[in-house]
Design goal:
The complex is a heterotrimer of chains A (101), B (655) and C (483).
Chain A lengths: L4 H21 L3 H26 L3 H31 L13
Chain B lengths: L11 H24 L2 H19 L1 H5 L4 E9 L2 E7 L1 H24 L6 H20 L3 H19 L6 H32 L4 H7 L5 H18 L8 H4 L5 H10 L4 H8 L1 H4 L3 H22 L5 H21 L3 H28 L12 H4 L1 H14 L6 H15 L3 H26 L35 H17 L11 H6 L18 H24 L1 H4 L2 H11 L2 H4 L4 H48 L6 H25 L1
Antiparallel strand pairs in B: 1-2
Chain C lengths: L3 H12 L8 H21 L6 E6 L5 E5 L5 H18 L6 H20 L3 H10 L1 H10 L7 H28 L17 H18 L8 H8 L2 H11 L1 H14 L1 H26 L5 H22 L2 H32 L15 H14 L6 H15 L3 H26 L15 H19 L2 H4 L3 H19 L1
Antiparallel strand pairs in C: 1-2
The chains are: A mainly alpha (101), B mainly alpha (655), C mainly alpha (483).
Chain lengths: 101, 655, 483
């Protein structure tokens, strides 16, 4: 039985906003990075769902691209976190404001 | 990629004449430190071989086309080459001949100078440049030579570059000559625009089609160049200053050859000048003014080289006046004779200066004829030639110019020329009397006289205090050789129109310049006698003031007092320098200062700074948003995204 | 192979950071070998066919299209590689490896500007060549503040932006940007309004880069602050990018607009000529004298280009190369002087000629070329340009343009004599004359100055590339006359 597209989209929206709230409210960069992953995967879900709906394989390929980018982003993000920790001895995002105008 | 010379149908002899001095200059320059004094012998050899080659080609150059050597082509109409015809051959012979003698003399004169090799490299380079000037078969090539002689002159005036006066004089000479160059450049543009070519032959072939104002404009351009190079009023002020250079340089460049380039230029462009009586008039008048001015200034100098420099100015004025009135043969003849007697006078003066330990003030000389009889003989023959004493070379050339001025319808110029001849006689004999008669007023001990002095930068004297000096003959022989043409060069014109001189040039200069005035109906002998009377008068006045025994007693105090009584207008050389400084140099510097101190930083940059200020204010506005809080940025993104979604949702509902 | 002229220096410049910091000499000689290698390669590629690679097809066609030809591109690339090689030989700056890397990137980027046959590629390299100069101004500036660097960057980026916009607009209107050096007749004509705005965009960028009065104030500051080797090639070549652009883009593609703006350009050129010369007369810093003299000399080239006279344009190419040679030589000798005496102020210098005859000789020849001594390269360019101007009917402009010739003599002699002549100053340190290496670095420039002065014929030679320019200018002259 085919599941209605609306279900996928609803789930995707919910996951995405969980991610958004995580990014905006948490001060620990590790949690923020995890929240960003959530947002990526919400988008992936939506893409795959639409891909299935239209019978077009481009969406699947896109998802692979997103997964790769997400991996790279996580790697770079974690590296930055490590660097910040080395310099500042803490990883509180609100304290890391060296680029203030 | 064809950077090589296209040497088709080039005369090897002509190329050798031209390039030998350049090779000499390069060889001496590169090997200078090893060559030392041998540089002098080497340099002289290169120039004299060039002279011999020119002499050997005397016949070939005399025919209709002369010798030719095409060199390079830049583009349409810009073809460069060399040509050796009657006119350029004459200059070539003087440049290499008199130049060679002065080279030999210089070996002695510069004997103790540490930079003797550099001196000869420059001197050879000068000869090469001057040959470029007279051998070029096109007007741009002529300008190249024109510029290069200016450079060589600059180097040689400023040869002793640790002397601030020499440096300033060199710069002045160069800048004034560059001013002259732009006159010639203008003439080049006009010629090229009218004919599409820079070759003399093409320009002269089409000269007949030029409009009257065009010819006049070209002639004015050329004449500005001639005025600068030949020290014509008001561009003459560099010449007396140029005497800062070593004396052989004054003899070669600032007397015999380079300063006569203006005469060459006008003679070379005779076909153009013949078309414009106005231009001829202008040349003749400027020449006459210079002639008189130089003579008047000559009366007020005490420096022996400056006296000669003023006389050079005056004599070139004669030449320019001669070619200006259309008496090309006479003008060129005066160049020819002047090259000998003025070189001789300068070299003689060099002997004196050398012997007296670089003393140039005639007031500190006196009584030298007993100590230096040879020098006295040289100076005497030179003086007699320059004042136009009968049967000396200057007599023939100067007389011809003065008479032809009358013949071509310029009675005022005739009287000016005759008067100047009288003044010349006065100041030249004044110099002769003060230098050689009376008693010695300087402080060089007798024993030291005629021994080479330690000039600045000399090889250090030997430990025992003995100063090295050149063999005397090295400096005397060239002067002795010059004395021959100083006396006889004028005999070439005996016989008037059928003389060797006039036959040599044939129809080279064409006809023209006969201004349709009414000549005063006096024959040539009457003019000659009139001039001779004035000359005699000049000598007599000089004798009364400086030559007779009462005048010679107490000469020291009187001469010094006379310097104080000098009219300021003469002491300041008619204020021409001051005028140039006030009218041109100071305003230019003031403008430049205003630009760099005011306009650039406070006007132009101010506009830019205003733009920058606006950008800065906008930046200050936006930097408030840059809090550095990552979560704040994230929130901004979310809010922004929300706005987008709301907008599109609104669009969706509206549809 | 032509593409290698661009690619190799840029890659090598980046790769140079792999060389250990301490191995400065290795880095230097690698760079010198690359520069002279590029010189040799460029000579071997004289007249070689262009090389092209498809780059974009939408929204307009753009190709990685490079070519040397036999015209201005070839001669300027020769000038660039030669002067870079010479300047690199005498590089002595702190952190030399990094500086040399910047020089190589600059070499590649500038080569790209002059061999690009595609407008988009041209614009790309145009902006790329700002970066090494900016970095150098920041990192090697003698002063703490980066004001000069920003002034340079902002001025030139504004120009670069105009250039990029104009390029994009041209691509959209014409459908392709692969148009440099093609026969203008084979291109579709574009509407007058578009042509006007596009050409103004290009012209603005070119005017800033040249620079033309009153957009010049970045130049004296930049030239004064850059280290000698880099200012040598920046003044020799980078400042020619605008003039080159006017010739190969302005004249070839927009002859009508060029005619329309010619009166303005003429006035600006004449002002630059006189203004620069007067300002050069009173500067104390030698580098600023040369900078202002450049303003004056480049004004003359602007006149030549806007006269539409083939002789003057041929002369302009000669003078572009000639100015490159002597300004590179001037800045290099100034660098040597500064290295020896720790100052470049005329009021402090003097009397060096006695102890440094070789340095004096080098400075003499480049200064003489700069003041237009007949027989050297500066004169060849000047006389061709002025003859062309006069022949094209610009009589009084020619007369005005002659005035700076005299002023040039005055300020160049002031520099030369101020440094070399007069009594020796006791307060200046006594240093050695030019070493063999320093002499060898100046020699190629001096030889080129003399050769170009004797025969600039090959440089004025109009090949297919410049012939189309000349044809376009002749054509548009006719069109103007018909109006």
């Amino acid at each position: 039985m085919p599941v209605d597209i609306a279900n996928y989209i609803s789930l995707s929206t919910v996951i995405f906003f969980i991610g958004v709230i995580g990014v905006v409210t948490r001060r620990n960069p590790l949690i923020v990075l995890m929240s960003i992953e959530l947002m990526f995967n919400a988008a992936n879900l939506a893409i795959v769902a639409f891909s299935k709906l239209w019978g077009n394989n481009a969406g699947h390929i896109f998802v692979f691209l997103v997964v790769t980018v997400a991996a790279a982003e996580a790697a770079i993000g974690l590296a930055i976190v490590v660097q910040v920790f080395r310099r500042a001895k803490h990883v509180d995002l609100d304290e890391v404001a060296g680029l203030r105008g | 990629m064809n950077l090589a010379f296209a040497m088709t149908a080039a005369s090897p002899a002509l190329l050798s004449i031209w390039l030998l001095p350049l090779v000499g200059a390069i060889v001496i320059w590169t090997l200078g430190p090893q060559l030392r004094r041998n540089a002098g012998y080497l340099g002289s050899a290169f120039v004299l071989v060039s002279f011999a080659l020119a002499l050997a080609n005397f016949g070939a150059a005399g025919n209709a086309t002369g010798l030719r050597a095409p060199l390079v082509t830049w583009g349409p109409g810009f073809a460069f080459g060399l040509q050796l015809d009657a006119l350029s051959l004459l200059w070539t012979l003087v440049i290499t001949g008199v130049g060679g003698l002065i080279h030999i003399y210089s070996i002695g004169y510069m004997w103790t100078d540490r930079a003797i090799a550099r001196f000869f490299a420059y001197l050879n380079f000068f000869v090469f440049s001057m040959l470029t000037l007279v051998l070029a078969d096109n007007v741009v090539g002529l300008l190249v030579g024109w510029g290069l002689v200016g450079l060589a002159s600059y180097f040689l005036i400023g040869f002793w570059f640790y002397k601030p006066t020499a440096v300033a004089a060199a710069r002045k000479a160069f800048v004034i000559n560059v001013f002259g160059d732009i006159g010639i450049m203008f003439a080049i543009f006009a010629c090229y625009a009218a004919t599409g070519s820079i070759a003399f032959s093409d320009i002269f072939a089409k000269a007949g089609t030029f409009s009257e104002p065009l010819v006049l404009a070209i002639c004015i351009g050329l004449f500005i160049g001639a005025m600068a190079k030949s020290a014509q009023v008001p561009l003459h002020t560099w010449l007396p200053d140029a005497m800062e250079g070593p004396t052989p340089v004054s003899a070669l460049i600032h007397a015999a050859t380079m300063v006569t380039a203006g005469v060459y230029l006008i003679a070379r462009f005779a076909p153009l000048w013949n078309l414009s009586p106005t231009a001829q008039e202008m040349v003749a008048v400027v020449g006459a003014i210079t002639m008189v001015t130089g003579a008047i200034l000559g009366m007020a100098q005490w420096d022996i080289k400056r006296i000669l420099a003023c006389s050079t100015m005056s004599q070139i004025g004669y030449m320019i006046m001669g070619v200006g009135v259309g008496a090309y043969q006479a003008g060129v003849l005066h160049f020819f004779t002047h090259a000998f007697f003025k070189a001789q006078l300068f070299l003689g003066a060099g002997l004196i200066i050398h012997a007296l330990g670089d003393e140039q003030d005639v007031r500190k000389m006196g009584g030298l004829y007993r100590k230096m009889p040879f020098t006295f003989a040289a100076m005497l023959t030179g003086t007699l030639a320059i004042i136009g004493f009968p049967f000396f070379s200057g007599f023939y050339s100067k007389d011809a110019i003065i008479y032809e001025a009358l013949e071509h319808g310029h009675p005022i110029l005739f009287f000016a020329g005759a008067l100047t001849a009288g003044i010349t006689a006065y100041y030249m004999f004044r110099m002769l009397f003060v230098t050689f008669f009376g008693s010695y007023r300087g402080d060089v001990p007798d024993a030291m006289l005629a021994i080479a002095p330690p000039v600045p930068g000399a090889y250090a004297a030997h430990d025992d205090g003995h100063v090295e000096h050149a063999p005397t003959w090295l400096m005397q022989a060239p002067v002795a050789v010059l004395m021959v043409p100083t006396v006889i060069a004028g005999y070439l014109t005996i016989g008037g129109e059928s003389s060797p001189w006039y036959r040599y040039f044939g129809t080279l200069f064409g006809h023209g310049g006969n201004v349709a005035g009414v000549p005063l109906a006096i024959p040539e002998w009457a003019s000659t006698i009139f001039v001779l009377v004035l000359v005699t008068l000049g000598i007599v006045v000089a004798y009364l003031r400086y030559g007779n025994p009462p005048a010679l007693i107490g000469a020291v105090d009187r001469l010094r007092g006379e310097a104080l009584k000098m009219p300021p207008v003469l002491a300041h050389a008619f204020y021409v320098d001051a005028l140039i400084a006030t009218a041109i140099v100071r305003p230019a510097n003031a403008l430049g200062g205003a630009i760099s101190r005011y306009v650039d930083p406070h006007v132009i940059d101010a506009g830019v700074r205003d733009v920058a200020w606006v950008a800065g204010m906008l930046g200050a506005l936006f930097r408030a948003l840059q809090t550095g809080l990552v979560r704040a940025y994230a929130l901004t993104i979310v809010v922004g995204a929300a706005c987008f979604i709301a907008y599109f949702a609104y669009l969706g509902t509206a549809r | 192979m032509i593409a290698a002229l661009v690619v190799v220096p840029i890659l090598a410049g980046l790769a140079l950071y792999l060389v250990p910091r301490s191995a400065e000499h290795l880095a230097k000689w690698i760079a010198v070998a690359i520069a002279f290698g590029a010189f040799a390669l460029a000579i071997s590629q004289y007249g070689a066919p262009d090389e092209s690679l498809r780059w974009l097809s939408r929204p307009f066609a753009a190709n990685f299209h490079v070519g040397l030809g036999k015209g201005p591109s070839f001669w300027i690339v020769l000038l660039l590689t030669l002067s870079t090689g010479c300047a690199l030989m005498v590089t002595r700056v702190p952190r030399a490896r990094d500086f040399i890397a910047q020089m190589l990137v600059l070499l590649g980027a500038m080569t790209g500007v002059f061999i690009a046959r595609d407008l988009l590629l041209f614009a790309l390299f145009w902006d790329l060549m700002l970066i090494p100069v900016f970095i150098t101004l920041v990192a090697w500036s003698p002063t703490k503040s980066n004001a000069t660097a920003w002034k340079y960057l902002v001025y030139n980026l504004v120009g670069g932006l105009a250039l990029l916009l104009a390029t994009a607009a041209y691509g959209i209107v014409q459908g392709t940007t692969d148009v440099i050096g093609v026969d203008p007749k084979s291109l579709a004509t574009i509407s007058d309004t578009w042509a006007l705005w596009i050409c103004l965009g290009f012209g603005f960028a070119f005017f800033i880069k040249t620079p033309v009065w009153p957009l010049h104030t970045w130049m004296p500051d930049t030239y004064a602050d850059l280290p000698a080797p880099m200012v040598a090639i920046v003044s020799a070549v980078q400042s020619k990018a605008g003039l080159y652009g006017f010739i190969v883009i302005g004249l070839a593609l927009f002859p009508g607009v060029m005619h329309a703006i010619a009166p303005v350009a003429f006035v600006l050129g004449l002002i630059a000529l006189v203004y620069g010369a007067l300002a050069a007369l009173v500067q104390d810093d030698i580098k600023r004298v040369v900078a202002y003299s450049s303003l004056s000399h480049l004004g003359l080239i602007i006149l030549a280009i806007f006269s539409f006279s083939p002789i003057a344009i041929g002369g302009a190419v000669v003078y572009i190369v000639a100015h490159g040679l002597f300004s590179a030589g001037l800045f290099m000798t100034v660098g040597e002087i500064e290295l020896r005496e720790d100052t470049r102020l005329l009021s402090r210098l003097g009397g060096l000629g006695g102890r440094n005859p070789k340095l004096a000789g080098g400075l003499t020849i480049v200064a003489l070329a700069a003041l237009g001594l007949p027989g050297l390269c500066g004169f060849a360019g000047e006389i061709l340009i002025l003859t062309g101007l006069y022949r094209a009917g610009f009589v009084w402009q020619t007369v005005v343009a002659l005035v700076p010739v005299v002023i040039a003599a005055a300020y160049m002699l002031r520099v030369f004599q101020g440094v070399m002549h007069g009594p020796e100053h006791d307060d200046l340190p006594e240093r050695e004359d030019l070493s063999l290496l320093e002499g060898l670095a100046l020699a190629p420039l001096v030889i080129a100055i003399v050769l170009l002065g004797i025969n600039p014929g090959p440089v004025t030679h109009l090949d297919t590339f410049t012939r189309s320019v000349a044809a376009a200018s002749a054509q548009s002259t006719l069109a103007i006359l018909k109006k």
